[in-house]
Write a structure and sequence with these properties.
This protein is of the alpha+beta class. It is built from 2 helices and 5 strands. It has one domain. It has a 5-stranded mixed sheet with strand order 1-4-5-3-2, covered by helices on one side. The protein is globular and about 35 Å long. Keywords: Cytoplasm, Phosphoprotein. Its main location: cytoplasm.
Length: 99
Amino acid sequence: METLTFEFPAGQPARGRALVGCVGSGDLEVLLEPGQAGTLAIQVVTSVNGASLRWEHLFTRMFSGQALPALRIDINDFGATPGVVRLRLEQALEEIGHD
């Protein structure tokens, strides 16, 4: 198990919370909560050791240059593919009203 943390610039705190997915059999769970103003903070707990660069590239593609609300994102991963990660993040963002 490995725990990774990432931060990106953000706006004001989000107004909602979301929980999507579930941990188990190649999937993952994503929890979004309002964060500290100006910061999008991500914590990933993953069963795949040594994948930090892959996570960083995915988040950079998704979150750089976007006007996102301040969030705390917790991801519990059990070997999900990057496509599944992106899908779950997009579902959670849609759930809190950020398209």
